[in-house]
Amino acid sequence: MKPDKIISKRKKEHIELCMGNNVNYEKKTSGFEFYEFEHNAITQVNFQQIELSTRFFNKVIGFPFLISCMTGGTSEAEKINEKLAIAANELNIPIGVGSQRPALIDRKNCSTYKVVRKKAGKVPVLGNLGAAQVVRSKNLLSDIKFLIDLIEADAMVIHINPLQELLQPEGEPNFKGLLKSIDKIAPKIGVPLILKEVGSGISKSAARRLLNVGVKGIDVAGAGGTSWGAIELIRSNEKNEFFSEWGLSTSYCVRTVAELKTEYKFMLIASGGLKDGINIAKALALGADLTASARPLLKEVMTNDIRGVIELLSSWFETVKKIMYLTGCDNIKKFSKIGLKRKEVFV
Question: Where does 3-346 sit in CATH, by number?
């Protein structure tokens, strides 16, 4: 089977599996349930004047959230991406495309990505390439620039997924030279470079090494939501609880990586198990600049179409506004500095 056919088949399988309920972490959680907000009984905030807008690098966006990278390279993906892009445009939030690797293999796949920019209007769009492809590319800089131009990307995301590559039947578990490659291209691609895990988390030490080679954004994508280990084990007809539960909880990653803000200027994105406005609010209070989600929105768009996605995200951030009011914050900048309390301090 040709490489593009293999990838297309895998992407279809990923979409189908993500629509089920057996690909979540079973025991490990995102960790947000262990934190609580400190109630401000004398809040002096006018609820109607709370401001959710923030910045995605040099662009103002409606609220601190991005529709995370999902899929590409198949006809199903094109339809999904088109609908999600329309929702992103209406909400004025960033959107990421799925892996653009198929576009490098066969130009006929380009339409599944171009549709995102076409429908997203002027909102930020994020490109996407896997770490395994980064280290194997013989023309990395030109490849990255091609992918950026393809969607007029405002940022480029490199996905680091060692667990997935290790367990995937067609996997390429070889990231040797990744940091060196990033160091070479980061100052030359013309847009900010973001490094993102896919569900196992990025530690403080790993984040520091990435920031030292020119990365401008870290998406921790921690454990607690979709387990790509579980997905690949299902595809291989295997079961391994140890590896399906592998990873660092999202709250731990956000809290510890946020400590690096005293040394580096970068955008911290929280994703991994963010399934409602409460988790989003807690991630922001722990130091995230932006939050993100993928699978809940994939399920929503396939079940309730564009309007379902818009209504779901609007309801999540209505909850965030209520929490901001009860903690005395009228904008996101203030809210990101309030911190959280471990629940045991209240008992």
Answer: 3.20.20.70
